[in-house]
Amino acid sequence: MIIIKNDKEIDLMRIAGKIVAETLLLVEKHVKPGITTAELDRIAEEFITKHGAIPSFKGLYGFPASLCISVNEQVVHGIPGGYVLKEGDIISVDCGAHINGFHGDAARTFAVGNISDEAKRLIQVTEESFFKGIEFAKPGNRLTDISHMKYNAMLRLQVSQL
């Protein structure tokens, strides 16, 4: 069931979303060869708490970190740790922040230094299909409609060749 939010609630949701967006921008600045995923997590947690929010993921079902960080082929929701990022890696960073009763949540994929053409293409196709899905997020459309649009966009972009 979807609960329609009033203007005040939407403004509160924006605050949580803004903290997440700014956290991901900060993390992006630190993504480079030689940094550990644990250090990226520490940077994010410090930023989130400094802005009065609580990391959404930390402690949830025992999850030990503020960010979910997956490197290369690793499946989503990876746990940050001692892995040292190296040139050519791609990382997915999922961030959540809770403030004023609402959670903000977003994920981004970042290149570590210079990456292969194949990895660049993967990031490009993923981003383009995401935005195609958003174009289809309109009243009356279902989540399956959005997913179908994203899938079709990936086929048009020839993602199967990656």
How do you describe this structure in short?
The protein has 162 residues and is an alpha+beta fold.
Record the SSE blueprint.
Elements: H1 7-30, H2 37-50, E1 54-55, E2 67-71, E3 90-99, E4 102-111, H3 117-135, H4 143-156
Antiparallel strand pairs: 1-3, 2-3, 3-4
Helix pairs in contact: 1-2, 3-4
GO molecular function: initiator methionyl aminopeptidase activity; metal ion binding; metalloaminopeptidase activity
Protein name: Methionine aminopeptidase
GO cellular component, one term: cytosol
> What's the β-strand tally?
4
**Which architecture name of the largest domain does CATH use?**
Alpha-Beta Complex
Describe the biggest sheet? 4 strands, antiparallel
The first-to-last residue Cα distance is 37 Å
Q: Strand share of the residues?
A: 15-25%
Oligomer: single chain
- The CATH superfamily name of the largest domain is Creatinase/methionine aminopeptidase superfamily
Unreliable stretches covering 5 or more consecutive residues: none
CATH class of the largest domain: Alpha Beta
Report the principal-axis shape.
Answer: flat
Protein name: Methionine aminopeptidase
Keywords: Aminopeptidase, Hydrolase, Metal-binding, Protease
EC number: 3.4.11.18
GO biological process, one term: proteolysis
Report on the structure:
Strands 1, 2, 3 and 4 form a four-stranded antiparallel β-sheet that branches. This protein has helices at residues 7-30, 37-50, 117-135, 143-156, and strands spanning 54-55, 67-71, 90-99, 102-111. Helix 1 packs antiparallel against helix 2 (37-50) and helix 3 packs antiparallel against helix 4 (143-156). The chain is built from four helices and four strands. It starts with 6 loop residues before the first helix and ends in a 6-residue tail after the last helix. It is flat, with a radius of gyration of 17 Å. The model has no long low-confidence stretch (mean pLDDT 93). It folds into two domains: 1-115, Creatine Amidinohydrolase; 116-161. The longest helix has 24 residues, at 7-30. Helices cover 44% and strands 17% of the residues. With 162 residues, it is an alpha+beta fold. Its EC number is 3.4.11.18. Its cofactor is Co(2+); Zn(2+); Mn(2+); Fe(2+).
